[in-house]
From TrEMBL:
It comes from Neoroseomonas marina. SUPFAM superfamilies: HlyD-like secretion proteins. Residues 371-391 are annotated as: Disordered. Residues 72-214 form the Multidrug resistance protein MdtA-like barrel-sandwich hybrid domain. Residues 380-391 have a biased composition (Polar residues). This is Efflux RND transporter periplasmic adaptor subunit. The lineage of its organism: Bacteria, Pseudomonadati, Pseudomonadota, Alphaproteobacteria, Acetobacterales.
Length: 391
């Protein structure tokens, strides 16, 4: 009897459980249509689009570069003397031949006066020796003594002429030392710091730098690129002309690059880094590039004539690789792509696209494959309904 009671109780509990599950499932089925219908009533996501472009596009090799001057001249004294005047200011732009410093040259000027007097005396002696030579030349046929006197006069005249030439050389040397006392710029450029002031004594043997002049225009940018680009670079250099275009992007105005030309390719690849060193020359009249400055550069070895590209912002990355969203009607459609390279703010891709395909640029992170989307310039239907309901 007890066993029959337990069996009856188990059947009642099972029936109650089955009934409860049936009631719960019916409630879920009744609510399911309501949950699925809610997204359909939301407005489409506003996006901006752009046509997929096919056409010429430059190949850009991006790198970090260092601005270096073509030449730096250290101004050093060529004679000993005390600094009398400093005729320039630190950081000043100078032209070749501009005076920079003057040294005390009074000692050399006094020495020059003495040497010029010596030269005048020796020129007088030369004149007398030449007169004697002419006189004895007319008597040379009158005997042995006359011939001997002629030869002596000839030697005296030659010796006097040599003394005069030596005096002239000494005078020229002293005049040059006086000229060296006025120190001038050997090239055009910008002055650096000036460590010496009037009153300092400088010696040629001490090899002390009085100033530095840095050439600012033109200027060089040195950078390195991976060796896989070596073939493209060599082909561009072999094509002749002025060399491949290089654009430099100064930090203060990256949207207005400076354009130059590639002028140097190193003779060997760096085996430690796998890169090749390059140099580009830039006209730098407004002095936008400063020596020692680190900047971004873009080397353009050639222009690809038929490149398929989309804005870089349209490119998305997923678990299956890169893709873009196309706007077809009012729906976003996912389209897988293969990225070739990035250039000029655009992504060069490979994929199956038509000339009329439009990729979603702004709002691509908010849409899903098959989701509703609308161009920002066109008002969404859901937005119209919301606007009418608020009136």
């Amino acid at each position: 009897m007890a066993r029959a009671g337990r069996i009856f109780l188990a059947l009642v509990v099972a029936g109650a459980g089955a009934g409860g599950w049936y009631w719960y499932q019916q409630r879920l089925d009744a609510q399911a249509p309501v949950q699925q219908a809610r997204p359909a009533g939301l407005p489409p996501i506003p996006v901006t689009t752009e046509l997929v472009q096919r056409g010429p596009l430059p190949i850009e090799i991006m790198a970090n570069g260092l601005v270096v001057p073509e030449a730096v001249v250290t101004v050093r004294p060529r004679v000993d003397g005390q600094v009398e005047q400093v005729l320039v200011e630190e950081g000043q732009m100078v032209e070749r031949g501009d005076p920079l410093f003057t040294l005390d040259s009074r000692m050399n000027q006094a020495l020059l006066a003495q040497q010029e007097a010596q030269l005048a005396r020796d020129r007088a002696l030369l004149s007398r020796a030449q007169s004697d030579l002419v006189r004895y030349q007319s008597l040379r046929g009158e005997g042995y003594a006359a011939q001997q006197r002629f030869e002596q006069a000839q030697a005296d005249a030659a010796s006097a002429a040599a003394i005069v030439r030596a005096d002239e050389a000494i005078v020229s040397q002293t005049r040059l030392q006086i000229e060296f006392a006025s120190i001038r710029a050997e090239m055009s450029g910008r002055l650096g710091a000036l460590p010496l002031r009037p009153g300092n004594f400088v010696r040629q043997a001490e090899n002390v730098g009085m100033a530095t002049i840095t050439r600012m225009d033109p200027i060089l940018v040195q950078f390195s690129v991976p060796e896989r680009w070596l073939g493209e670079i060599r082909a561009a250099m072999a094509a002749g002309g002025e060399g491949p275009v290089v654009r430099a992007f100064p930090a203060e105005s990256p949207d207005a690059p400076v354009e130059g030309r590639l002028v140097f390719v190193d003779s060997a690849v760096d085996t430690q880094t796998g890169t090749i060193a390059l140099k580009a020359r830039f006209a730098n009249a407004p002095v936008r590039l400063w020596p020692g400055q680190y900047i971004r550069v873009a080397l353009i070895p050639r222009i690809e004539p038929d490149a398929l590209s989309v804005p870089a912002a349209a490119l998305q990355v997923g678990q299956d690789g890169r893709f873009v969203f196309l706007l077809q009607g009012n729906q976003a459609k996912r389209r897988p792509v293969e990225l070739v390279r990035m250039t000029a703010g655009r992504a060069v891709i490979r994929g199956d696209f038509a000339a009329t395909d439009r990729v979603i640029v702004e709002g691509a992170q908010r849409v899903a494959d098959g989701g509703r989307a609308v161009e920002r310039s066109a008002p969404a239907q859901g937005s119209q309904r919301i606007s009418q309901a608020t009136r």
